[in-house]
Amino acid sequence: MKTMAINDISDTAFWICAYRAEESKRHDSLFSDPLAEMLAGDKGQDIARKMSDSRYSSWTVVIRTCVIDEMIDTLIRQNDIEMVVNLGAGLCTRPYRMELPKSIQWVEVDYPDLVNFKNEKLKVEIPKCQLKRIGLDLSDINARCSLFQQLNSYNRKALVLTEGVIPYLTEDQVGMLASDLHKNSNFLYWITEYHSKDMYKHQRSKRKNNEMGGSPFQFFPDSWFKVFNESGWALKENNYLYEKGKTLYRPFPAPLWAKVVYTFLPKKEVEKIEKMLGFVLWVKE
């Protein structure tokens, strides 16, 4: 059996960071993340090598990074947000690499050990905005609700970002998080991923579960949108990664046989494939 790649949920931060480091080395890179290689280290590279579908995961991370960057940039330019609350921030370096107004308040929340690691690694780096890191286990409901209330009291128009968080939660946990966020009047927007039901078979596969170890994917609702709608979040836009990849001249790296089959598929099946993965911008109703 192949060695388990992910031992705990914090390992996913190093795994994803390794893909951003890899992208930054390309001559045709879609973004530059100069801190990613240092943060990912050998640990991140080792995890990426062990993942059986690294080629596709890498593409997903790169395109989703571009999509999220664009959504954040648009909301800031439109003066719709003054604060970003990044829950499960991992090794994200947006406060350092994006062109952000100094007035933007950026709050990163993640496990204390990961926050301490990041603080030590980046202690000499200067962010482009007002950056604060908070070590907190977000599964502690009382602690997170207290934090949300504190952040809400800053009276700033806020965007919540959960990149690579939702798929690891159960449907009940996602619903509760959605409700907890919605209770705070200044949390106006929320960015999450979107997976169609056609993705579930792959995410539930034995091979994927073996690789993910103690942190398997768990969010498989009958309706992805309904879970959020029931807690008062309305769809503002859904950016599908397949379509975005084409506009960036970085199409999905499908094998040759799949490309051949794709040309013979009915239009309805093609549309299903192209809308399997995305990132959603929710707005509070």
What is the CA-atom radius of gyration, in angstroms? 18 Å
The class by helix and strand makeup works out as alpha/beta
Please report the distance between the alpha carbons of the first and last residues. 48 Å
* Biggest sheet record: 7 strands, mixed
Name the quaternary structure: single chain
CATH class: Alpha Beta
Number of helical segments? Answer: 13
- Following the backbone from N to C, one meets helices and strands in this order, namely HHHEHEHEHEHEHHHEHHHE
What's the number of extended β-strand segments? 7
Roughly what percent helix? 40-55%
CATH architecture: 3-Layer(aba) Sandwich
Low-confidence stretches: none
Fourth-level CATH superfamily? Vaccinia Virus protein VP39
By CATH, the topology is: Rossmann fold
Structure overview:
With 285 residues, the chain is α/β, with parallel strands linked by helices. The protein has one domain (11-284): 3-Layer(aba) Sandwich (Rossmann fold). It is built from 13 helices and seven strands. The chain has helices at residues 11-24, 36-50, 54-77, 94-97, 112-121, 141-152, 171-182, 200-203, 206-212, 224-229, 241-247, 256-262, 267-274, and strands at 83-87, 105-110, 130-135, 158-161, 187-195, 233-240, 277-284. A seven-stranded mixed beta sheet has the order 3-2-1-4-5-7-6, with helices on both faces. Strand 2 (105-110), helix 5 (112-121) and strand 3 form a beta-alpha-beta unit. The protein is globular. It starts with 10 loop residues before the first helix and ends with a strand. The mean pLDDT is 94.
